[in-house]
UniProtKB/TrEMBL annotation:
It comes from Punica granatum (Pomegranate). L-glutamine binds at C84. The active site is at C84, H189, E191, D232, D390. It catalyses: 5-[(5-phospho-1-deoxy-D-ribulos-1-ylimino)methylamino]-1-(5-phospho-beta-D-ribosyl)imidazole-4-carboxamide + L-glutamine = D-erythro-1-(imidazol-4-yl)glycerol 3-phosphate + 5-amino-1-(5-phospho-beta-D-ribosyl)imidazole-4-carboxamide + L-glutamate + H(+); L-glutamine + H2O = L-glutamate + NH4(+). Keywords: Amino-acid biosynthesis, Chloroplast, Glutamine amidotransferase, Histidine biosynthesis, Hydrolase, Lyase, Multifunctional enzyme, Plastid. Its EC number is 3.5.1.2. Its main location: plastid. Pathway: Amino-acid biosynthesis; L-histidine biosynthesis; L-histidine from 5-phospho-alpha-D-ribose 1-diphosphate: step 5/9. Belongs to the HisA/HisF family. SUPFAM superfamilies: Class I glutamine amidotransferase-like, Ribulose-phoshate binding barrel. NCBIfam families: hisF, IMP_synth_hisH. This is Imidazole glycerol phosphate synthase hisHF.
Length: 535
């Protein structure tokens, strides 16, 4: 093989490295997969995107005899790029699964972020770096943000100072990248960091073209507020998969034909929103509760095509649950999720099934480990599992009127009610359940959700702003990130939700689809209002 255009990739099969592959190909390189330890020793340049849990990664590497090969390869200062766990691997040990040894190339211990002061863990999102002199592949990165998703990190010390090429601040300073000679590793995900990430990869792959400029001095910042574009997807009456948008969850047009509102093609729109600066893209298969998603091959195609050109995190939801088809064949929710991850999703979002799991957990007080939420979170990590809540506002006169957590409402109800509780629904808002959004949020956090997508049926598609009372209630109740959703109609609604609540991200659909407000304007407005955003 022609060494110049070939990259050797160490994929030990523990998760989705599809986006790393896509990014490498996008930059014009071919991929050779490591099969044996020998392939490591003969590589011209090696990329190791670590995924999964630290202990299982080390087990696989040890079993395959790859630990020694990696140590030798790195000791000989051959071109290496580790990503995420591929950085953590270089340290002495990690405490993720008890104390497990790494390669021990760099002094230091990989430890969990300290969440005792209310820090949200995992660290998910876009953050800027403090870049040190001579940082090689980070050349020119300046103050631009890169995408992180992790709960463990190594910290800079006198012992590893000569390795550290950049740090990032989240709670404390932690190591965002290391580099020495030809050996590099990054804690963030270049394959999910848009153009900035692609140029980090490009500099590693074509060192000749890099290091022409002096490294810009980046100064670390706060975690950026994310702006997410959401595509509600379903099959229309003609059988085409279309992006649709509801009015309080009703997606049918007010015409005689009553057809499904069609706002465009999912892959095209996702590509457009990526170019426009969306920090993340969500696909919700809104009829997933009815149609089994693995029967819904077009959705997998949508993910495959989208992930070829879109280098920010992708979430997919709808229909994630255990399922037995008409022929009696059983599919596990874990199998459904695995298929989504393989097709390019970074996170899956669970709606109805998480409501049932939370109800059972609250009824019994027992974590069975069997719900789709618990299983997927255990195998892929809680950062890979979003729970989507679809609540409806129920006005009441006094918080004592219901057994569920109620909140005082800024705008009283039709009969002057001053309080409301938020009733969870399943099946796309069609059925109300005996559980509130507050109870659900706390329960799913305990069951392993890494993030909450907080919709509100009353506000959906209304363009009158987010439900601040609801979002405040939920984002103060949990320590995982909350994505505010439903009701965005103007740039001011985004600054309002970040100012008045603890939401980490804001999601919108209609205003982007109808081209009323470009994503760029939202970012510019937030910046002007003093919020940290990725531009
Ligand atoms: O229950 O696991 O199968 O998941 C179903 C998923 O599909 C859930 O995440 C649920 O929120 C979503 N869903 C189901 N029915 C609808 C519908 O609209 N008929 N869409 C639906 C949810 C709400 C938001 C929307 C925001 C922003 N859409 O995602 O994008 O409200 O809209 P806006 O900015 O235009 O106001 P399961």
């Amino acid at each position: 093989s022609n060494g110049d255009s070939v990259v050797t990739l160490l994929d030990y099969g523990a998760g989705n490295v599809r986006s790393v592959r896509n990014a490498i190909r996008h930059l014009g390189f071919d991929i050779k997969d490591v099969q044996t330890a020998e392939d490591i020793l003969t590589a011209n340049r090696l990329i190791f995107p670590g995924v999964g849990a630290f202990a299982s990664m080390m087990d696989v590497l040890n079993e395959k005899g790859m630990t020694e090969a990696l140590r030798t390869y790195i000791k000989e200062d051959r071109p290496f790029l580790g990503i995420c766990l591929g950085l953590q691997l270089l340290f002495e040990c990690s405490t993720e699964n008890g104390q497990v040894n790494g390669l021990g190339v760099i002094p230091g211990v990989v430890d969990r972020f300290d969440s005792s002061n209310g820090l949200q863990v995992p660290h998910i999102g876009w953050n800027a770096l403090k870049v040190r002199e001579g940082s090689g592949i980070l050349d020119d990165i300046g103050n631009r943000h890169v995408y992180f998703v992790h709960s463990y990190r190594a910290v800079p010390s006198m012992d590893n100072v000569e390795w550290v090429s950049s740090t990032c601040t989240y709670g404390d300073d932690f190591i965002a990248s290391v580099g020495r000679g030809n050996v590099h590793a990054v804690q963030f995900h270049p394959e999910k960091s848009g153009d900035v990430g692609l140029s980090v990869l490009r500099r590693f792959l074509s060192p000749k073209s890099s290091m022409l400029k002096k490294p810009a001095e980046g100064k670390a910042s706060k975690l950026a507020k994310r702006v997410i574009a959401c595509l509600d997807v379903r099959t229309n009456d003609k059988g085409d998969l279309v992006v649709t948008k509801g009015d309080q969850y009703d997606v049918r047009e007010n015409t005689e034909e009553n057809e499904v509102r069609n706002l465009g093609k999912p892959v095209d729109l996702a590509g457009q929103y990526y170019k426009d600066g969306a920090d993340e893209i969500s696909f919700l298969n809104i009829t997933g509760f009815r149609d089994f998603p693995l029967g819904d091959l077009p959705m997998l195609q949508v993910l495959r095509y989208t992930s070829e050109n879109v280098f920010v995190p992708l979430t997919v939801g709808g229909g994630i649950r255990d399922f037995t088809d008409a022929n009696g064949r059983y599919y596990s929710s874990l199998g459904v999720a695995a298929e989504y991850f393989r097709s390019g999703a970074d996170k899956v979002s669970i709606g109805s099934d998480a409501v049932y799991a939370a109800e059972e957990y609250l009824r019994t007080g027992v974590k069975t480990g069997k719900s789709s939420l618990e299983q997927i979170s255990r195998v892929y990590g809680n950062q890979a599992v979003v729970v989507s809540i679809d609540p409806r506002r129920v006005y009441i006169n006094s918080p004592n009127d219901v057994e569920f957590k109620a909140t005082w409402v800024t705008n009283p109800g039709p009969n002057g009610e001053e309080y409301a509780w938020y009733q969870c629904t399943v099946n796309g808002g069609r059925e109300g359940r005996p559980i509130g959004a507050y109870e659900l949020a706390k329960a799913v956090e305990a069951l392993g959700a890494g993030e909450i997508l907080l919709n509100c049926i009353d506000c959906d598609g209304q363009g009158k702003g987010f439900d601040i009372d609801l979002i405040k209630l939920i984002s103060n109740a949990v320590s995982i990130p909350v994505i505010a959703s439903s009701g965005a109609g103007a740039v001011e609604h985004f600054s309002e939700v970040f100012e008045k609540t603890n939401a980490s991200a804001a999601l919108a659909a209609g205003i982007f689809h109808r081209k009323e407000v470009p994503i760029q304007s939202v970012k510019e407005h937030l910046l002007k209002e003093g919020f940290e955003v990725r531009v």
